[in-house]
Design a protein that fits this description.
Shape: globular
Structural class: alpha+beta
Largest sheet: 7 strands, antiparallel
């Protein structure tokens, strides 16, 4: 009896640990579970979007191909207080993606937002359009490596999650979603710049929705009339309408509209597109505060128009129909213009800070995100400055204007969990091609960050290229914490760690049962041996050891160079006499003292 009671208690304990249902391993299982299978739900679109932003390395490890900082894409910490998800392993944290309300709505592509941006009459429809979420367990240090992925949804009208709609997604299914709906001849935009006019990605998403049985049959107009149904079960007749705001060369809003159906053009006496300036809410089911409105008479189903409306965050195009002089029916909303042009902040290499270009009143502006733990940033960046350039082709000294980082005003009403935000409004007109750069000091060769040129879509190899799942290291650091070099597989599946403030990385690996250290020195870091003349790498039997209690050490300049290295890095190695074992660690110290540690590796793990 006692044994049976213990077994029962153990089963109850296991049941309380997690509410996750069975793991979903393929498209057919995803279809059968019925998760988010009809509009206005957006969970399947969110899952497809996520799959396009995941890379797989040579060791079959999954990584985000962007750093989800500053709450982009609704990214935020999830504490798992409800024990919705399984307990985490050490070094991992749960995060949530997919909240559409708030500023993050503007960072998603159009196909994720299609139903959120429409107006609904029933409470159920209003609740369903923003209830789906992705939960992801990521590594604590970089928030890039993916360990597990879950889909879930809020209970209607509640902040609680529904265990019956919570499923783990097999990581191989993420890869399948990314690869299965592809045209291998298509070249997609860089991962640094997501634009909602990427019709190819949207087309692929529609194919995915069709295969998973998604039905778009819950769509209403803004004037409380049902929309005309399409004869095709998977698509509403008016879902192809496109309204958006772009940029003129003079810093004004360019209005673009496409695919207004012929019956609308024929059956309405007057058709207008309003450009409204929202200040608090982009939710079409609320009444957003408007500080101004311009309207434009439309005579063609598709077109573009340069307006005199200064470019600002919160501009929103709205289609309005008149069947007579009296009626005034809002019919369709376009997405709000994102002040940063949908480009997430660029990490400033070697620093706990990021840089972002955005538009304000038609001018180019810069925003600095400084992590709150970076308490002495003003001392470190006292001579650092941000240059404003008309073109990415301009030399560093050919800036239009500039401002020192320490002179950026702090924005007290810009709320983030981990960052203080500083902004500067320049006199440069925002226009296609404009770029800002962060330079470390008064010299012109220490560029630590540069933004994607405004409204310029860089081209990279398609994510559908199955032979190149993990991109090669670029000419600039893609992440300030680590990078990946596919030639080496002896480091216990641990990526090299970025050495703070320098174009170099450190990695612990093993050879012949001994602890070894590898230095990656970027080939553009030509004076590294002078900079690191007194720098050394210490080998420690435990991460708990003080810096001075090393087992052995070697100066960085005495490491042996390994051939020609890689495309972007020279590689130097040193083999110690310390036996490799769980807990072993290497650390990089700047000089002969013991208090200037720049980086340390993760302790070696068994296996």
């Amino acid at each position: 009896m006692g044994a049976m009671r213990k077994a029962l208690l153990f089963c109850l304990f296991l049941a309380s640990v997690s509410s996750v249902k069975d793991q979903i391993n393929n498209i057919n299982e995803l279809k059968k579970c019925g998760y988010g299978s009809a509009s206005p739900r957006h969970g399947l679109q969110l899952l497809f979007w996520f799959a396009q932003r995941v890379d797989v390395d040579q060791n079959n490890q999954f990584h985000l191909n962007f750093t989800p900082n500053q709450n982009a894409y609704g990214f935020h910490y999830f504490g798992n207080g409800e024990e919705l998800l399984p307990p985490l392993n050490p070094g991992q944290t749960y995060y949530s993606f997919g909240k559409l309300s708030g500023p993050s709505v503007n960072t998603f592509p159009r196909y994720v937002l299609n139903y959120y941006l429409q107006r609904y009459n029933t409470i159920t429809e209003k609740q369903e359009r923003n209830m789906d979420r992705l939960m992801v367990s990521l590594d604590n240090k970089t928030k890039r490596r993916i360990f597990r992925v879950f889909i879930t949804a809020h209970n209607p009208g509640s902040n609680d999650f529904n265990p019956n709609e919570t499923y783990e997604i097999n990581l191989e299914l993420i890869l399948q979603i990314r690869e299965s709906y592809c045209n291998d001849n298509v070249i997609f935009r860089t991962t640094q710049h997501y634009d909602d006019d990427d019709e190819e990605e949207e087309k692929r998403c529609r194919q995915f929705l069709t295969e998973t049985g998604y039905s778009s049959n819950v769509c209403t107009t803004l004037n409380k009339r049902r929309m005309k149904r399409s004869p095709y079960p998977q698509c509403n007749a008016y879902e192809g309408i496109k309204l958006e705001i772009k940029t003129t060369t003079q810093g004004y809003a360019k209005l673009i509209w496409e695919n207004i159906p012929a019956d609308i053009m024929k059956n309405n006496n007057y058709i207008y597109i309003d450009i409204c300036q929202n200040t608090y809410s982009s939710d079409p089911n609320e009444d957003p505060t408007q500080v101004g409105k311009e309207y434009f008479d439309i005579h063609k189903s598709s077109g573009a128009l340069d307006t005199s409306v200064s470019l600002n965050a919160g501009l929103q195009p709205r289609l309005r129909l008149y069947t007579s002089y009296i009626s005034n029916a809002l019919f369709w909303y376009g997405p709000e213009f994102d002040g940063a042009n949908k480009v997430i902040p660029t990490r400033i290499k070697g620093l706990d800070a990021s840089l972002q270009l955005y538009a304000g009143h038609g001018k180019a502006c810069a925003r600095l995100y400084i992590e709150k733990t970076f308490s002495k940033w003003e001392d470190v960046l006292y001579y650092s400055w941000v240059g404003f350039y008309k073109s990415s082709q301009d030399e560093n000294d050919d800036y239009y204007t500039y401002q020192y980082a320490v002179k950026f005003p702090k924005i007290n009403n810009y709320i983030t969990d981990n960052y203080d935000v500083y902004q500067y409004n320049s006199s440069l007109t925002i226009a296609p091609g404009v770029q800002i750069r962060f330079l470390l000091d008064k010299k012109y060769n220490n560029v630590l960050a540069q933004t994607t040129p405004w409204e310029r879509n860089q081209q990279v190899t398609s994510v559908c290229d199955k032979g190149n799942l993990w991109p090669k290291p670029s000419s600039t650091w893609s992440d300030p914490e680590f990078f990946y070099e596919p030639e080496f597989y002896d480091a216990n599946n641990v990526l090299p760690i970025k050495i703070q403030m320098y174009d170099a990385g450190l990695q612990l690996f093993t050879k012949d049962g001994k602890a070894c250290a590898r230095l990656y020195i970027k080939k553009t870091f030509t004076d590294w041996d002078t900079t690191f003349y007194y720098s050394w790498v210490g080998f420690y039997t435990s991460s708990q050891e003080a810096h001075k209690y090393y087992s052995t050490y070697q100066y960085a300049v005495n490491f042996e160079k390994m051939g020609d290295g890689t495309e972007n890095f020279d590689v130097y190695q040193f083999k110690s006499e310390l036996a490799i074992a769980p807990g072993v660690q290497v650390r990089f110290l700047m000089d002969k003292s013991y208090d200037k540690k720049l980086v340390e590796t993760e302790p070696w793990k068994s296996g």
